[in-house]
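In response to the reviewer comment on reproducibility (Comment 2.3), we provide here a single inverse folding case reported in full, input and output, so that an independent group could reproduce the run without further information from us. The structure tokens appear first.
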């Protein structure tokens, strides 16, 4: 029941009490209880693909399945947000990309979120805030809003959101000392506020405006510093030797010898030679007769 309805009920009950008080000597009394059932707002944060055993022996560039979803277990539509917080590699840490050895010049998230094999990319969740850097805690924080464009999407009772992301991938760190002392955990928090009557009472349903209400309601403390984006220093470049072009071998021409040429010529002129030979052949001499000279 929204504020207007609650105020209306209170006013009616107050007027009835005044009438009873003034005309008590002529009054009769009867008690009636109006049962008011409050809306239940409740959410559950799940990670169905998370397996603690997968995080027991992690190596650089390992991808860990981690798919946070939010379920509305209450009776009212809700606007939901998810906050993700992780440690950061400090400046001076060395990492490797596909082609280079790099030295970080600014804090860099220890993990990269992955969605459908890429960095965060979702049609249902949008990155609202972050990355924010907390220099005291050496952490990076992101806030995601469930919605599209300029408006939040209500999560209906019993519904489940798609995963905010599908996995996290550890940075390709090459020195153990660069991760010693870092909190290797990824912390995920979900927040919700009722969607019904929020916009009806004049409040904006834009993600930023709704988040401000949630932040004040839950007293969410976020760092105010944006994550620096200084490019890392290139220490070495992987040299990939270019393959030397190899010329295709030219087939050796067969030089026919004299017999080959003769055979070839005879083969071409076989019919003509046979005709000439037959024309120049002498008449056969009858058996038993002598030829006259």
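Designed residues, in position order:
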């Amino acid at each position: 029941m929204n504020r207007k309805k609650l105020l209306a009920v209170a006013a009616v009950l107050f007027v009835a009490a005044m009438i009873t008080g003034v005309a008590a000597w002529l009054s009769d009394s009867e008690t009636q209880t109006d049962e008011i059932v409050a809306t239940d707002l409740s959410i559950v944060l799940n990670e169905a693909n998370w397996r603690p055993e997968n995080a027991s022996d992690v190596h650089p560039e390992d991808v860990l399945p981690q798919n946070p979803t939010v379920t509305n277990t209450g009776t009212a539509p809700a606007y939901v947000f998810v906050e993700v917080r992780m440690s950061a590699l400090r400046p001076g840490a060395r990492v490797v990309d596909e082609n280079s050895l790099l030295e970080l010049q600014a804090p860099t998230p220890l993990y990269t979120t992955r969605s459908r094999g890429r960095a965060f990319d979702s049609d249902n969740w949008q990155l609202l805030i972050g990355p924010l850097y907390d220099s005291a805690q050496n952490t990076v924080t992101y806030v995601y809003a469930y919605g599209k464009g300029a408006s939040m999407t209500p999560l209906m009772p019993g519904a489940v959101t798609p995963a905010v992301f599908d996995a996290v991938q550890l940075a390709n760190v090459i020195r153990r000392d660069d991760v010693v002392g870092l909190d290797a955990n990824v912390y995920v928090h979900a927040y919700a506020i009722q969607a019904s009557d929020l916009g009806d009472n004049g409040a904006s349903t834009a993600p930023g405006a709704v988040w401000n209400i949630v932040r004040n309601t839950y007293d969410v403390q976020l760092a105010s510093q944006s994550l620096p984006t200084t490019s890392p220093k290139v220490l070495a470049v992987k040299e990939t030797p270019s393959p030397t072009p190899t010329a295709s071998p030219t087939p050796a021409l067969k030089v026919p010898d004299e017999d080959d040429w003769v055979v070839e010529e005879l083969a071409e002129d076989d019919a003509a030679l046979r005709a000439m030979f037959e024309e120049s052949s002498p008449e056969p001499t009858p058996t038993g007769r002598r030829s006259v000279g």
